[in-house]
Each structure stands twice: as C-alpha cells, then as structure tokens.
Design goal:
The model has no long low-confidence stretch (mean pLDDT 95). The relative contact order is 0.15. 83% of the residues lie in helices and 0% in strands. It has 86 residues and is mainly α.
C-alpha cells in the first residue's frame, strides 16, 4: 500500500509540474508539452495534480478535453479504487 501511495504522490507531482511547465512555455511561446502527454499523466494516476494545476495556473480550462476529461478520469479512477478495495 505504501508503494501505491508513493507512486500516486510522484505521478501527481509530475502532472502538476508538467502542467506548470507547459503554461510557462505557452507564455514564452516556447516548445509546448503535447496535450496527449498531459492527459496520459492524468490517466496513469496524476488526475488530481492535473486538476490542481488547471485551477492554480488557469491552464487548459477552456479545452473540453481537459475541463471535462480530467474530472472524468478522476471519477473513473476513484470508482476503480473503491471497487478494488472492497
């Protein structure tokens, strides 16, 4: 269980910092992180970090794939975790 918690902390921090980096690059008109990579980070467990980053930096909030997709991924992950733990 400790390994799973450590994994989730790491992947959520990675999602958070990757979204922050993408926002920074957007402001600088630099090289961006592909949207599929940001969504992949959410799908492998970083949805909370992605949602926090969206709110803190107001990043990707106008994209339906993120404003709807990130919470949807979190709901599916939560339901899966509940199902596996019961």
């Amino acid at each position: 269980m400790k390994l799973i918690i450590a994994y989730l902390i790491i992947v959520n921090l990675l999602a958070l910092f990757t979204m922050a980096h993408d926002k920074s690059q957007a402001k600088k008109r630099g090289r961006r992180v592909p949207e599929k990579n940001l969504l992949l980070l959410a799908a492998i467990g970083g949805s909370i970090g992605g949602i926090v980053a969206m709110r803190v930096w107001r990043h990707k909030t106008k994209h339906a794939s993120f404003s709807i997709g990130m919470p949807a991924i979190l709901i599916v992950q939560t339901a899966l975790a509940i199902w596996l733990l019961t």
